[in-house]
Amino acid sequence: MTGLQAARLLDVRSLGVAAADGTPLVHEVSLTVEPGERVGLIGESGSGKSLTSFAVTGLLPSGLTASGSAILDGVEVVGARERDLVPLRGRTASVVFQEPLTALDPLMRLGKQVAAPLKRHLGLRGAALRSAVIDALAEVSLPDPERIAKAYPHEISGGQRQRVAIAAALACRPRLLIADEPTTALDVTVQDEILTLLDSLVAERGMALLFVSHDLAVVARMTDRALVLRHGRVVEAGPVETLLSAPTDPYTVELVRSARALDAALEVS
Ligand SMILES: Nc1ncnc2c1ncn2[C@@H]1O[C@H](COP(=O)(O)OP(=O)(O)OP(=O)(O)O)[C@@H](O)[C@H]1O
Fold first, then answer.
1. The ABC transporter domain covers which part of the protein (predicted)?
2. Is the Cβ–Cβ distance between 168 and 136 less than 8 Å?
3. H-helix or E-strand containing 42?
4. Which of 68, 97, 164, 266 could bridge 14 with an S-S bond, Cβ 3.0-4.6 Å?
5. Which residue puts its alpha carbon closest to atom 12 of ligand 1?
6. CA 53, 59, 65, 69 torsion: positive or negative?
7. Is the dihedral of CA 232, 215, 199, 87 positive or negative?
8. Where are the domains of the chain?
9. Which ipTM was obtained for this model?
10. Cα atoms in the 13 Å half-sphere on the side-chain side of 208
11. Which pLDDT tens digit goes with each residue over 190-226?
12. Does residue 53 have its Cβ closer than 6 Å to ligand 1?
């Protein structure tokens, strides 16, 4: 392995994902994320964004198979045994999903859910665990963390639930955050607050970010470099500024055109 590869937090080469019947869903995706770097994955619904982000953390739904290579902090994820991936999740890389209820157990108090990774990875117990949970909830700017810790998911708002899911994902200070459409299920004002929160947490902690979204404006706000996926393939990649100012692939051209049209419509209204 060269020095450059060793320094990479995530190094994905020719990643493929196939359905149970062999139908290819993701083809030949290659991407890298360096420590502290922010990379976007953009594409329309069904383009393979989620499957790519699941495959690089070994979280593909059962029945789907990955091929190629995805090296996360030096560990080959494709073909890895589950027990070799458990220590990486939450510590090296954490995922925040579109719908916080996917990540949260509806029947468990929120404090317990934030506590789980702190117990598992950092071995915290008792008073140290309780104060780490409250700190984790306070860091995502939740009002009254003591109350939230005792509440169940249905007792707080959707935006607050996403903050708790972010708190749980970041509790063990992972080096890479994978955010898969983290604000798509939220209304626009809450969406903006969550993006601001993610932006500042990523900056403060010097975390790397792989940000997955169908929304070009959001990807442009959150990342410096992006890959455009279509039908499971990368059709274009580069600095976000270049994608916006001089897109070359017809699909990217269309994405930029519709994002600008929306912008213009908003300015008029
Ligand atoms: N478990 C599965 N079995 C078979 N096909 C699947 C499975 N999960 C996803 N797919 C298919 O794989 C393709 C890529 O799906 P993926 O969820 O990665 O898209 P996406 O870009 O994340 O879309 P969205 O933004 O709607 O989540 C789609 O055509 C989808 O129908």
1. 7-256
2. yes
3. strand 38-42
4. 68
5. 25
6. positive
7. negative
8. 99-174
9. 0.94
10. 22
11. 999 999 999 999 999 999 999 999 999 999 999 999 9
12. no
- In the block, residue with structure tokens 């899911």: 165
- For the stretch 212-265, pLDDT in tens is 999 999 999 999 999 999 999 999 999 999 999 999 999 999 999 988 888 777
- Among 29, 41, 50, 218, name the best residue to mutate to test ligand 1's pocket (greatest count of ligand atoms within 8 A of Cβ): 50
CB 19 within 8 Å of CB 63: yes
Rounded-to-integer distance, Cα 203 and Cα 191, Å:
18
| Residue from 148, 188, 147 nearest 166 by CA | 148
- Rounded to the nearest angstrom, the distance between the alpha carbon of 20 and the centre of ligand 1 is 13
Question: What one-letter code names the amino acid at 263?
Answer: D
Is residue 5 within 8 A of residue 72, CB to CB? The reply is no
The DSSP secondary-structure symbol of 89 reads: B
